[in-house]
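Write out a sequence, fold above all:
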Amino acid sequence: MSDKVWCDPYFKHLVGYDKGVMNAWFPILLSSLSICAVASAFTDSPKQIKPGELWPDNRGKHVQAHGGGIIKLRDTWYWFGEDRTQDNAPDKRYVACYSSKDLVTWRFRNQVLKTTDPANLGPGFVLERPKVYYNAKTRKYVMYVHLDDQSYRAARVGVFTSNRVDGDYEFKTSFRPLDKESRDIGQFIDDDGSAYLIFESRPTGGFYIAKLSEDYLSVEKEVCFVHAPLEGGGLVHYEGLYYLIGSRMSGWAPNPNLYATSKTLEGPWPDFKDIAPPKTNTYGSQSTMMVKVTGKKKTTVIFMGDIWHPQTQWDSRYLWMPLEIGDGKLWLPSPAPWTIDVRTGETVVDGRG
């Protein structure tokens, strides 16, 4: 029997007059009503982003886009991230793609990556922090990932491509950008459309901002080395300044994330400061990206963070909040449910007007 029948008010007439039938079907009915409730919530919810809570997609399943990145194509955002679904095949690594027109309700598109050790890194190989770029010249979608062996000694990036944003991505190459070790990666697309890779290089005690080649399949040149032992790097250009955020290195455990500003990508990037009260450890999250939403009335910058659950990674959550940003200052307010109007760029945080 289809979900549509279960949701039909007439269903009560099918079982309502036979106690035995009702007892037999009641658990199934409750389960089906839950499905109906999820579907209703997806279409009829007040469209709030609720940091730290389960984030259901259009199927009612928790969004699996950990360590992810977002690109916008026309009026649609696409969110890519590590798919840590509990029943995934253990010998493969997965990346999921979701789409949204409001940044709140997300529709599952595809497991765009389902790969078994593309660079022969051995059992337990690592594939993390996928970031996708669209190359207008080649009309290809190019995905960068942190690709590593189980001991994190390979420290490489992997590159995959697809002809469709939500298509099946194929492995192209793996390398160390600028011949440097590369672990956590971030992406940045400047206002002029130039594409950059951000990657942490532990031996040099910092991270690099590097410009991608014309076809995005390799790294063209170093733009800047930021001498700060940080990972989870994210960049945004806002009102004439570049803002750079990063996380201290503490494994899965959260820590106080930091930011710095510069008038140019080349730096310098002096005086890293806290983005939130240090004792909160960034409210239990780790930076992964900043998303700029340019509306008709306001430009909002969203902090994207991961709340990792290392023992139950499929249950890891997300902390998204609009940043207080401007005049060289950046601050992540305490998490609370909030709404955004992507047309105007305006946000409303519960209890704060």
Remarks:
- Helices lie at 3-7, 11-15, 19-44, 281-284.
